[in-house]
Amino acid sequence: MAEKVQPEIEVEDLTIGYGSNVLQQNLNFDVKPGEVFGILGGSGCGKSTLLKHIIGLYEPQKGDIRIEGRSIVSATDTEKLEIMRHFGVTYQGGALFGSMTVAENVALPLQEYTGKSPAEIARKVEEKLKLVDLGGFGDYMPSELSGGMRKRAGLARAMALDPQLLFFDEPSAGLDPITSADLDRLILRMRDNFGATIVVVTHELDSIFTICDRVAMLDKTTKTIAALGAPATLRDTSENPWVRAFLSRDGLKSEDKADVKVKIVE
Ligand SMILES: Nc1ncnc2c1ncn2[C@@H]1O[C@H](COP(=O)(O)OP(=O)(O)OP(=O)(O)O)[C@@H](O)[C@H]1O
Question: Which parts form a coiled-coil structure per UniProt (predicted)?
Fold first, then answer.
């Protein structure tokens, strides 16, 4: 009998929003260990907000989120910090501190969370920079790097503590297609060589099919998950025309548009 593996992340009956405004409700899904899981949906449907809830930055209006079995919603501040130590996050712009060198940026989590000596930290920083093909760039300032290099430096910082769980918000936004494909390869390397579990918010269709094992598609109209599964399967077999259109380059066909209206009226 197959061994039952505990999900890395469990999202249960989750409702999220700001103030009394509900963005998404009744969200239920798991992220399994070692998978790349995509959060998709139209602009403003609440993808980044969901990610921020999962990493414990916001409190949900309702429901629970468990990371490796531990609720990040009901955790005390100390417990939350302990859970947060186990994962790495990169934000949209790479979010490096502009007044620090690349190496100093990557060293930050190591200085904050480990008792490593400066020499050990320097070794670890160079190892992580090499991993993202930025070996030798430690002394550069973020402003001296290209957009793609800054994103990779952000990734190196997110990986400084060797987390098993990584979160990326729009990793390839604003990058040219080649740089974006490099970043995709890097994400797959994290999964395949280090067994990392990765949650990614993305718009890029190429990326979705290249890196995501499964996706959750958030619908802005119904305010909940429209589809959950492997992106190619959803594109080819979903009964929801919006889901098929979103995942294909065709856009909505006219008969599907009529279908969507009917569904909304229902
Ligand atoms: N701190 C905040 N306070 C109030 N409203 C917010 C806040 N952050 C985001 N919003 C609003 O919540 C909605 C969803 O935002 P969010 O960034 O989660 O969407 P998204 O799906 O990630 O969008 P995009 O694809 O455009 O980045 C938007 O209408 C946004 O203006």
Answer: none
Nearest residue (by CA) to ligand 1, atom 3, is: 18
pLDDT tens-digit readout, 135-155: 999 999 999 998 888 888 988
Q: Which residues line ligand 1 (CB under 6 A)?
A: 18, 23, 41, 43-49
Co-location of 157 and 57 in the same domain:
no
Using the mean position of ligand 1's atoms as its centre, give its distance from the Cα of residue 124 in Å.
35
pLDDT of residue 257: 45
Binned at pLDDT 50, 70 and 90, residue 3 comes out as: low
The pLDDT tens digits of the residues spanning 53-106 come to 999 999 999 999 999 999 999 999 899 888 888 888 776 655 788 999 999 999
Determine, yes or no, domain membership for 123.
yes
- Ligand 1, atom 26, residue with closest C-alpha: 43
Shortest-distance Cα residue to atom 4 of ligand 1: 18
DSSP characters over 140-161: S-GGGS-HHHHHHHHHHHHTTT
Nearest CA to ligand 1 atom 7: 18
Write out the E strands in the chain. Answer: 9-18, 21-31, 36-41, 62-67, 70-71, 87-90, 165-169, 197-201, 214-219, 224-229
Asked, for residue 217, whether it belongs to a domain, the answer is yes
Complex ipTM > 0.85 = yes
pTM of the model: 0.87
DSSP β-ladder status, 70-71 and 9-18: unpaired
Q: State whether 82 and 106 are in the same domain.
A: no
Instruction: Over range 215-219, report the average pLDDT.
Output: 96
Distance 228 CA to ligand 1 centre (A): 21
Separation of alpha carbons 101 and 106, rounded Å: 9
- Looking at the fold, whether 170 and 186 belong to one and the same domain comes out as yes
Q: Is residue 248 part of a domain?
A: no
CA 220 to ligand 1: nearest atom: 21
Domain assignment of residue 52, given as a range: 1-86+164-230
